[in-house]
Write a structure and sequence with these properties.
homodimer, about 450 residues, alpha/beta, Rossmann fold, 3 domains, 6-stranded parallel β-sheet, 6-stranded mixed β-sheet, about 45% helix, about 15% strand, metal-binding (chains A, B), oxidoreductase (chains A, B), EC 1.1.1.23 (chains A, B)
């Protein structure tokens, strides 16, 4: 074990008296934006709502250091997307295509069907599933522009049958990412605007002269984007408000420590707030992983970020046994869970909360991030307790169907009448009573 | 047609030059809470988060004019719920039981299944569905205490398999509604606290010494409740932020005008902000409904409320034909849609947005509000464009399953490596590359 004073990553044990306190401190994440962010976002939202394109252009010039005078300069054509795709090196174009196909294939399985059933008296009840008319997809720009995020956000919308997919991606200093445009081409995006921040969220939520108003906005973004999404929620639908990405790996001690170290790095390299936690009941194994971390960390391109993330929010946790490991998983409800164990399928029944479960030593999170098929947009910060991966269901909604026969309405009318009068809603009661057959 | 100067309800025609403007004005609804509400809610949330039970007790004494010193005085036992149910008059107990059974039966159909599939190389992909551990249900108290809302919120949670259902219902001045308690008994609620407002939302979101922290909060409430729900969203899941209730009725001119008037009243009697709109291409029929409204309105117990609602937000709209009526429906995306026409089933394919669709002259909304089976918690204010009725799916979440075979991981590793390097995430790439078989 390395000297505690210079340890890269914290070591915890469930046997420690203060374990739960330390774990709570480690997991603590306040995603709340401060009042100054809130106020700036409110101003931008109000400005775009009122002035439309002009406000979007001004904000874009200011925040992305652009110099445009018309929205047409902030719009990419289908031809530009196609050209970006065609211009990629073969290996990148092929990898994108494979990923896209696999993601599409998986998400096809998520499509729910409308259904209905008829009762003895002829009354029909059911549920009708329809896609959204228009979805907006926010794609971060600049350094963290990820083509995989374009695929993961746009393909489920496309599979759901959304009529029009509008993507926004800022291009600070005018820098365009060709892989992002190529992915938009592949994923069936209909419109792309090179705008970002709260001004892009406002444009999508309210519509402008050029940007069509959408019904739902999905996709990750910085604190301004997250704050703006929260503010327009209700006006439009939104996906979750994402916190920093995290992984919890459970190892039975038999996985190569180098593999595990790199799996933790693959999370830690995202940003300094990312969280990577390894749990095992094998103390020597944790020592070996810690050594691997110390040995491999200096070989990373993004060493500084990974180091900051691991030292601030990472942990190697020694637990008692499998049962306690499962307890920890359900307590944390991790975004990504790697079960690096011999028979992960025997664990599955007891895992209640996790965004995505990567099973067995061969299934590293990175495979799921790019191309296994399931979505990489997952609930963070313990929200897997109540949220799901982004999916086709996020781009559809249901309508209840009620078609009473005369006989059915008569019987239901009697029940409704009693209950409505119990609530002193007598117009409800009388509306129901009109449908009762005189006998 | 009645004299315009004293008309109870507005008459619009799609042929009017200003029609779309007038419709927009009619539909306009700002659910945004002002800064003073926001500040008061923030204070209450912070106080409950920090001081727990003590803060809840103080707020309850203050806002609900109670005088309690301990949370036990704000808790109802299973025996009390049972006693409330047993003590109901027979016809009410039976009506509640019939409604409860029908709601349960319908929602059973909404239960999704976990699924998985295996690829040629042995890789398994899937989706696992699990219920929430704990759901919180907010039930408004006082005058607008609705037992039907208890059934509609708690039964889907119960059907979903939620382990623990916690209900909060304020009892201003200590007034308890026995029908509400009886419904809680019937719907399988586990804990009831007689608290409300932002303090109840805070208690559910953060947990206190007595109130268990829940994973999701559902149920309608006043502006303080709605503001508090928006604030804790992310910390816990929430259902939609509900606006005032609305109905759009489309009539082909053949439904009894008295029936239609009463159907509109059944919406308008809810509150002064409720909205009731009738659409028809038969001008004389609209005249007849207007006369029925004027004749029947004075016979309502809640005449004043219904009158205010109809005159402020109601409308009888003359349109050209069926196609234009459907266009209006999709434009408004009504919470409740009554298709009071001869063959409503032929309309269904073209209806894209509506919370619940009541088909045919016999299916009045009131039947669905209480006992048809589908949920009465529905997306308001046009949010049916992107939201669904409350359902079993609101109390469950999904986890992605990825289990790569050695061969599968090797192939996916190659693709992931290319894409990760394209995003400059080299630890991702190296984690994937470890899984590539040396050949």
């Amino acid at each position: 074990m390395s000297d505690k004073s210079i340890a890269t990553i914290a070591r915890l044990s469930t046997a420690d008296a203060a374990f739960h306190q330390r774990l709570d401190a480690l997991l603590d994440w306040e995603g709340v934006s401060d009042k100054s962010v809130q106020a700036r976002v409110d101003d931008i939202l109000a400005d775009v709502k009122q002035r439309g394109d002009a406000a979007v252009i001004e904000a874009t010039n200011r925040f992305d250091r652009m110099d445009v005078t018309h929205m047409d300069q902030l719009r990419l054509s289908a031809q530009q997307l196609q050209a970006a795709f065609d211009g990629l090196p073969d290996h990148q174009r092929e990898a994108l295509a494979v990923a896209s196909e696999r993601i599409k294939h998986y998400h096809e399985r998520q499509k729910p069907s409308s259904w209905q059933y008829e009762e003895a008296d002829g009354t029909v009840l059911g549920q009708k599933v329809t896609p959204l008319d228009r979805a907006g997809i926010y794609v971060p720009g600049g350094k963290a522009a990820y083509p995989s995020s374009v695929l993961m956000n746009a393909i489920p919308a496309h599979v759901a049958g959304v009529r029009e997919i509008v993507m926004v991606v800022p291009t600070p200093d005018g820098v365009v990412n060709n892989l992002v445009l190529a992915a938009a081409h592949l994923a069936g995006v209909d419109h792309v605007f090179t705008i970002g921040g709260a001004q892009a969220i406002a444009a999508l939520a309210y519509g402008t002269q050029s940007v069509p108003r959408v019904d739902k906005i999905v996709g990750p973004g910085n604190i301004y984007v997250a704050t703006a999404k929260r503010a327009v929620f209700g006006q439009v639908g939104i996906d979750m408000i994402a916190g920093p990405s995290e992984i919890m790996v459970v190892s039975d001690g038999k996985t190569d420590p180098d593999w595990l170290a790199m799996d933790l790095f693959s999370q830690a390299e995202h940003d300094e707030d990312a969280q990577a936690i390894l749990v095992s009941w094998d103390a020597e194994h944790l020592d070996a992983v810690e050594s691997a971390i110390d040995r491999l960390l200096p070989t990373l391109e993004r060493e500084a970020i990974a180091h900051a993330s691991l030292s601030r929010r990472g942990a190697l946790i020694l637990c008692k046994d499998q049962a306690e490991a499962i307890e920890l998983v359900n307590r944390v409800a991790p975004e990504h869970l790697e079960l690096s164990v011999a028979t992960p399928e025997t664990w599955l029944d007891e895992i209640r909360h996790a965004g995505a479960i990567f099973m067995g030593r061969h299934t590293s999170e990175a495979l799921g991030d790019y191309c296994a098929g399931p979505n990489h947009v997952l609930p963070t910060s313990g929200t897997a307790r109540f949220s799901s991966p982004l999916g086709v269901y996020d781009f559809q909604k249901r309508s209840s169907i009620i078609h009473c026969s005369a006989e059915g309405a008569s019987e239901l009318g009697k029940v409704a009448s009693v209950l409505a009068r119990g609530e002193s809603l007598t117009a409800h009661a009388r509306s129901a009573e009109y449908r009762i057959n005189p006998e």
